[in-house]
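Notes from the 1:1 (GR / supervisor)

We went over the backlog. Supervisor wanted to see one worked example end to end before approving the batch request, so GR pasted a single chain during the call. The sequence is below; no edits were made to it. Supervisor asked that the structure be written out right there so they could see what the output format looks like.
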Amino acid sequence: MAIYKIDTNYNVKPFVAELMNPTGIAFDRAGQMYVSSRFDGTVYRVAPNGTMTSYAEGMGVATGIAFDRVGNLYVGDRSGTIFKIAPDRQTFVFATLEPSISAYHLAFNPQGDLFVTGPTTSSYDSVYKIDSHGTVSNFYRGLGRPQGLAFDVDGNLYTAASIAGKRGIVKLSGPAKASLEVAGQGLVGLAFAPGRSVILATTGAVHHLSWNIQGLPLIPE
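Structure output shown during the call:
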């Protein structure tokens, strides 16, 4: 499997060609790219030329990854563990969740809390909130197969999920406030882009959508 790079002119080319089951991608504050592999439970650091080096091993079925403001890397092992890797590469068990049948997806809100989705065998899944001490709470329950997620600058959470039988991008503006903002079959992920726009991923394509929403930067500030 390969990781593809899409430039601002929508040109597509392979970037990393020899990584088994690449699953999660994150960037640190310096813009360095990291990729998890659920095949071997390793997080790789990827240079601008596509060269890979191992950053952390033994992450179970490594899926979603995300950095906090101070450079700690969080890795979701879909068998039920969220690992925390300090900048010196010391590794800790940060939190435990119900195992996911596919992958965990991770994102930080503006206050520094970690939010996690992870589809289970239930059709009534949760979005979890984990505070800085690793305490897990149920932020919202009632979504079908929630996957990718991203925050806007106001702290609203958007996730690719089903709600009330409709698939799309669901906005969670609070623990009891959910609304379908974009409808579309096969949506599995999203990321906010410059110019008040969003990148939407389906199971077979990537789409660019103009949207009057300012996204929270992927790289912590």
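Supervisor's comment: The chain has no helices and 21 strands.
Batch request approved.
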